[in-house]
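Human: For the file, kindly provide a plain-text protein record giving the amino acid sequence and the backbone structure tokens, at your earliest convenience.
Assistant:
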Amino acid sequence: MNTALDERVRNSFARSQDSYHDNAREQARIVQLLVDRMVSLGAPKTFGTVFEFGCGSGHLSQALVDQFGIASLFLNDLAYSTRLPALPVKASFRLGDVRKIDWPDSPSLIASASTIQWLADPQCLLQRAADALAPGGWLVVSGYGHSQFIELAQLGSTARAPGLCGSKDLARFLRTGFDNELEILEAREEINPVWFDTPLDVLRHLRRTGVNAPRSQVWTRAKLMRFCSDYIDRFSSNALVPLTYHPVWIIARKHC
């Protein structure tokens, strides 16, 4: 468990909480994708106890409440966001590391979007989630794959989330020890470049969404100019520059 990284993640998202919700458009898109896939795969119209970890500013919380009937909602994150919506369901917030806090008993849905990549051992958490689910319960989790922000990596950045993994990895994590308990309904991924006018806009996006939490680089003017020049030389297309998102997700159901 990397306590220093956990602290940087917490501080980075706490600093960006006022700007995250409106700027995290790709994360919001992934949330809607997850909910749409749940519906297409036959999710029930109502859930009893729902546990969402890494709730952030509430993109997934709001989407779940809008789509499904929920009797009781438990939310968790490392830091409390002042942007969490007022939800028309019985909801409670549990502050802290999801690996350390108490979980609600036998949730019928455990969900998370764009969070598990911050954990060095996502397999351990997914297996705990599978074990915690009530019979018939659903597990819906997304993270990011190895091509996440590949442009930054190719320019020499080592500030990558520790738990990047592919959809096949997510499926393997859950098949290990749970073959007779879980039905994996879907394990997929996609590559989605988001385009910006300049490399500086890329950096602003990273700062406003807090997703550069592991970064420790101090930007001098010379480093910034070199970064922008190299980014344009390597990746520019039609006067725009990309930042690649690589979302991965898994949807599973526990046998009754």
User: Anything to note?
Assistant: Residues 25-40 form the longest helix (16 residues). The chain has a mean pLDDT of 90. The chain has one domain: 3-254. Residues 3-254 form a domain with the Rossmann fold fold (CATH 3.40.50.150).
